[in-house]
Here is the input.
Amino acid sequence: MNSPLYSIRMRSARGGHHLSGAERLGSAEDLEQLAAAMVRRALNHTRGQAETIELSLEILDQAQVRCAELPDLHTRLVSDWRQGRQAAAQLLRQAGVSACAVDEAMSAIGGGAAPDGRSMRGAMLIDAASGQRLEPDRARGVRVSRMDLSSSARQALGDRLQVLGLDNDHVREALVLAGKVLTAPGIVAELCWSDDPDYSAGYVASPQLGYVRFPHLKPLGEERGGRAFFIAAGTPDLQRLIDYLETQPVLFDRIGQLHAPQPWGE
Ligand code: WAQ
Ligand code: MG
Here is the structure.
């Protein structure tokens, strides 16, 4: 019998504004180390040193934990963020997102999707056909949590990412988050780029395309980033989708294929 899993979540803020967050799963003996790493991270963040750090830990109902496989990872090389956004838009269209929904997502993330013009704490939900924003709270958005890699999958992923020069927190965490989003009912695709000023990469993910990263989706130094989850038109129960994204525990115990970078347009 495996030892019970806990969810551990962190959010940090400075001057009343969200700085960073993190979410992991671990057994009781992992929790001290995970908490210490989260605190260290909040105090050494490129967006500033945290003034408040909230940690929340809770045991999960083991029967609820769903096991899953990570999406395949691709890197498409683009020369700058403008070409990156064009390429990302093209993939989103291919995944079934309408042109107006793509435009809505790109301009919202690029301009700061929260009402104060900053980054949101979580993700937007966007109707993939109409482009309408559906998340109930435009500052908070929807925070995906309660997902992680099993220890053997973490090891395997680290080994494979290292070969590609991609073994960093951004890639690991984004792949796991996108992986959980793709298991949710009614998700057509996801678009993301980081809100960290020193990290310009982002990705498009969809059930057919997998996780497709672009080294540039924004200029370096830019702090506006975010996420958009595109929802199939007419998804009947939005609240059920939000509950799934926020609370359903998902443990990735298998990794997908990790492909070497390829120039966009080939
Ligand atoms: N749930 C929903 N939205 C989130 C979450 C979450 N758990 N965490 C962050 N966000 C949203 C929020 O609006 C942030 O401003 C935005 O995403 C970016 O978060 O392959 O580092 O943690 O090289 O800065 C993607 C590319 C990196 C990785 C993404 O995101 C790669 C990244 P960040
Ligand atoms: Mg960030």
